[in-house]
Amino acid sequence: MNYRGPLWRLLLLLFVVLPAQAAPAVLRVLAWPGYADSDLVAGFEQRYEVKVEVTLVGSDEALRNKMSENQGGNFDVIAANTAEVHRYVDQGLLQPLHPERIANTSRQLAHFRDYARIPDIVVGGQLYAIPYVWSDMGLIYDRHQWQSPPESIDSMWDAKWQGRVLAFNTSNHNFSLASLSLGGDPFRIKADEFARVTARLVALRRNVLTFYSLPEEAAELFRSHQVALLFANYGRQQLKQLRDAGADVGYVIPREGALAWLDCWAISRGASDPVLAGKWIDYMLEPQVSHALTERQGLSNTLEEPAEAGSPRPLIWIRPVEDDQRRAALWQRIISGERPPLLEAGQ
Asked: Which residue, 13, 107, 152, 198, shows the most beta carbons closer than 10 Å to its own?
């Protein structure tokens, strides 16, 4: 074969001249289960001819661990509650946002566009997050085991239900719940109150079946172990899951009030393409996408009023706490069955 012939020279010329097809841009999303379903991700990928990599987390602690890697530079856009947003801003992990560049913010309910009135998303006069979805964290109960709905958070500690209570595996929310049940501030536990609140959580560990991490895990445990009472960290998302599975369950806000969270989208300081990250936030605020979240997960979006008015009892929007590292360290000892030293020392 003549490798110096005209045809070979033409093929060689085409190989040299034609540019290689560029790989699509990649958007790295860090979010909670149900926030980035595959069909919705596919819609975004097709529209913008990009690739989306989604990483899911099941707790604030897991989210923090992910954000601590490479100073948050492993992700472009994240979903986090308002208290966590403030934490990441303080650590320099997020960049300011410009809502006027995110067109669909104009579709949101007025109170979700009044950024100055939403705790922890405006820091130093700059906006760092766009509200996306919210829920209260009430109590789910088995109607067959309760003659009337539970009235108080104290029900989680009631010995009558020992081994039939499910709680969430998290440090901050559990310390907040325990403090609230004792009549204290959920987010600012005084130094001389820590021993009392910690002892309250030790008592909770002895009363629960277990502490769950994901809503799907909680739903399976609820059905298979005749659970009577569930603290719904994921709120009405868990109520919908259980009802969809055929469970006859009710949902209440206890008389002390319920912790409530507002999850937002934020852009990492190390985002490789902030403009593309902004397009993701804008896409998440399109009516069909936000409505899909509500329909599938039972959570309230920021574009429309919730279908159910809910309880008139107070909602307590979560805030940064006095010492999350201390809470986390104590929680690890509590859940492992160790007696925290401060209980021995009376600190």
From this structure: 198
